[in-house]
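WARN retry 2 of 3 for item q-0093 after timeout on previous attempt; input resubmitted unchanged.
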Amino acid sequence: MPPGLFAQLLDAGVTLTEIYGSSDTGSLAYRTAPDVPFTLFPYLIMLLDDASANTISTLRHTETGAIVAVPDRLKRVSEREVRVLGRFDEAIQIAGVNMHPAQIRQIIASCPLVADCDVYAKADTNGSQLYGAVRLCTLTDANREACLRWCREHLSAPELPKHLYVY
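OK item q-0093 returned
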């Protein structure tokens, strides 16, 4: 949930609990405010990767002994709290779907009209949005329109950068 929406709902008197985890790991931690660390559920303990950097990529389930690989880079804040620093796989969520800017960049670059391109994400109050800059081999109005059409045909709606500059 975007931090701005979380704060607006709290200001409106809504009680929220954000759960951290994934479909692969299940629920790992929770928090009740947007800018505070996540608290691990009591059945998990942290396994530090690098004590000097306080980084964590695995947790241990105390009841089963199972090791859980987390999908994000985590930083230990305290014995029970972590901050999410970012994903290991560089994916971002657009409309609830994981997107990989590097993969989208490769798809756009495979268009025969494209000389070079870049795709990146920017976060704003409504979440993350994809931005793209595409340099054509030969810039003409017809090539620009053909490139945009090609992108719409080869990318899904969430993959298509909302802000696509073709030059």
